[in-house]
Design a protein that fits this description.
about 475 residues; Aspartate Aminotransferase, domain 1; 2 domains; globular; binds ligand F0G
Length: about 475
């Protein structure tokens, strides 16, 4: 994808696949979009698909599958125990990551539950580059405290640092000295750091972290859910890896880790998850949780069809021409938006295009959820469903006060191989229009607020009638167009 030059000189990412199955989409008129988002409590998670034109909520479980994945699903070996399908996946895991032990789980957070219940004890500290929502919730539920040790550049919205997902080795050293290695069950590194804009870590950084872990006899756990994007960035941005194949880079990464877990809804473009483990004793402990929470050891809550698809998907992840599609489409969209003045996270990362709501709607205070308000406005403007990744996605402090997020982002995910370039251009066009009309956007306030992971199902309302004003501005500029 990256090697194709256009005679015109334009930089256009060219798809290295063709589309053979399609799904019809609807684009509702703007008035209907206002009605839909109102009914959804201004929470894009609660919109119905029939009202969504471009579903950019997530890449989770919605990446396009390949013909080989679909074909493999037809030959799955369906049995409760001992399925051949599982052994094919296990062999693939050993082949790619070099781990002997593998436990299946129904999705990424199920792996986190098992890891947390096995390894996290009350009072433990878990250092990491950055948390993910479900990860932190599981570690905290088991009495642990998360310490985020991302390098300072990681939280700078505009940067040219190629590896904003790196952990700061000095902060890690200090954290180990302060809390004592005996209180730290493991260090967690997240590939393609989700909440700070899909930003990668470098192999060099992981090597440094592993050195520190080894010195202090602390386990190193990798969340590989977004590994595909991270592998691509290591290949194209890290000097020492330029000549290595994706498979070689993967092996170098996995050789450093004691445990690797992943959401198969992202890695491998299927659905499910799993944990790769080196230590025999930990494997034995985790096994019991799999049978308790997930299912038998040879399916772990997944359908065998999905397991077959995951096996092929993991193999396809080893192909740079497959995994570069996401990051290159994201970079294209980020550049289009920047040309229109829209503030986005730079450098563009993986997973999706991340809009900086703190700047886009700088007039909205964090207590009124600027990123949530912007996500609702983007849906009204274009039928585009993104996801709030800001204060709404945080939990309140124990005294009930808001915990303002480090960043206020609207994530517009680009599920792999799903959208065409004209759809990406449409999304950018509508968001640029919204940016010109940003003064019309105001905040949101809760109507129904769940206690845990409130962003999934909470309901909000606008603080004024700003959404009606936005619809009438849309009609003024676009006439009777959808
Ligand atoms: N770790 C990371 C880095 C993730 O991005 C996710 C999910 C999980 C763990 C949990 O995996 O959903 O299979 O249980 N991220 C999704 C998202 C939800 O939309 O970014 P899961």
């Amino acid at each position: 994808m990256s090697n194709i030059k256009f005679f015109s000189g334009e930089q256009i990412p060219l798809e290295m696949h063709k589309v053979r199955i399609v799904q019809k989409l609807n684009l509702q008129p703007v008035e209907k979009r206002l009605k839909a988002i109102t009914e959804a409590g201004n929470n894009t998670f609660l919109l119905k698909n029939r009202d969504v034109f471009m579903d950019m909520l997530t890449d989770s479980g919605v990446n396009a599958m390949s013909d080989r994945q679909l074909g493999a699903m037809m030959v799955a070996d369906d049995s409760y125990a001992g399925s051949e399908t599982f052994f094919r996946l296990k062999e693939k895991i050993t082949d790619i990551f070099g781990f002997e032990h593998f436990l299946p789980a129904h999705q990424g957070r199920a792996c986190e539950n098992i890891i947390a219940q096995t390894l996290v004890k009350p009072g433990n500290i878990i250092p990491m580059n950055y948390h993910f929502t479900t990860t932190r919730a599981h570690f905290v539920l088991n009495g642990g405290t998360v310490e985020e040790l991302i390098i300072d550049e990681g939280l700078e919205v505009i940067s040219n640092h190629p590896f904003k997902g790196n952990i700061c080795a000095d902060k890690l050293r200090h954290c180990i000295d302060k809390h004592g290695a005996e209180n730290i069950p493991f260090v967690r590194m997240e590939a393609g750091t989700n909440l700070i804009g899909g930003q990668p870590f470098s192999l060099e950084n992981l090597e440094e972290v592993q050195e520190l872990c080894k010195e202090n006899k602390i386990l190193l756990v990798l969340d590989a859910s977004l590994l595909a994007d991270n592998l691509h960035f290591i290949k194209v941005r890290e000097e020492q890896c330029r000549e290595l194949s994706i498979r070689e880079i993967t092996k170098r990464i996995s050789d450093l880790c004691d445990i690797i877990y992943f959401s198969g809804r992202k890695l491998g473009c299927a659905r499910g998850g799993g944990i790769c483990i080196r230590d025999e004793k930990i494997f034995a402990q985790m096994k019991e949780f799999v049978t308790l929470y997930e299912g038998f050891l040879t399916y772990g809550g997944m359908s065998v069809r999905e397991i077959e698809a995951m096996t092929i998907g993991l193999e396809e992840t080893m192909d740079e021409e497959v995994i570069n599609q996401g990051p290159e489409f994201i970079a294209f969209m980020a550049e289009e938006l920047q040309r229109g003045g829209v503030p986005v996270i730079t450098p563009p990362g993986g997973l999706g295009c991340h809009i900086n709501a703190m700047k886009f709607v700088s007039h909205i205070p964090q207590e009124q959820y600027p990123a949530g308000a912007l996500a609702a406005a983007i849906y009204i403007a274009g039928g585009i469903r993104g996801m709030e990744r800001g204060t709404l996605s945080e939990e309140r402090n124990s005294d009930g006060s808001e915990h303002p997020a480090d960043m206020e982002l609207v994530r517009l995910a680009l599920p792999r191989r799903v959208f065409t370039l004209s759809q990406v251009k449409y999304a950018a066009d509508r968001i640029i229009w919204l940016y010109k009309n940003r003064h019309l956007i105001e905040g949101l306030t809760f109507v129904e607020e769940p206690r845990i992971l409130r962003f999934f199902t909470g309901k909000l309302k606008p603080v004024s009638n700003w959404q009606e004003k936005l619809v009438s501005a849309f009609r003024d500029d676009f006439g009777d167009s959808l």
